Amino acid sequence: MKVVVDLSRCEGYAQCAFLAPEAFRMHGEEALMYDPNPDDARRDQVLRAVAACPVQAILVDQLEARHAPAEASPS
């Protein structure tokens, strides 16, 4: 999973830091620090943080095999 935050859009609401503190944290009152490659064990937390961002400043790229279409089963 790759995470990108548009820091020009981020307004420091810190919902992401509250929901996924291992991936996002506030530095001071307005500066967001984040892990661009969070551990897969944090996937659910990160996705909740992305959904909770009031200004939609967080983007996630989830290119991995588990999201690939399932193979067709033999008839």
Please explain how this structure is put together.
The protein contains two helices and four strands. A two-stranded antiparallel ribbon has the order 1-4. Strands 2-3 form a two-stranded antiparallel ribbon. It has helices spanning 15-19, 43-52, and strands at 2-5, 24-27, 31-34, 58-61. Strand 2 and strand 3 form a beta hairpin. It has 75 residues and is α+β, with helices and mostly antiparallel strands.
The end-to-end distance, rounded to whole angstroms, is: 35 Å
**What is the CA-based Rg, rounded?**
15 Å
Q: With helices defined by DSSP (H or I, 4 residues minimum), what is the helix count?
A: 2
The chain-level structural class is alpha+beta
User: Helix and strand succession?
Assistant: EHEEHE
Write out the strand line-up for the largest beta sheet, numbering strands in chain order.
1-4
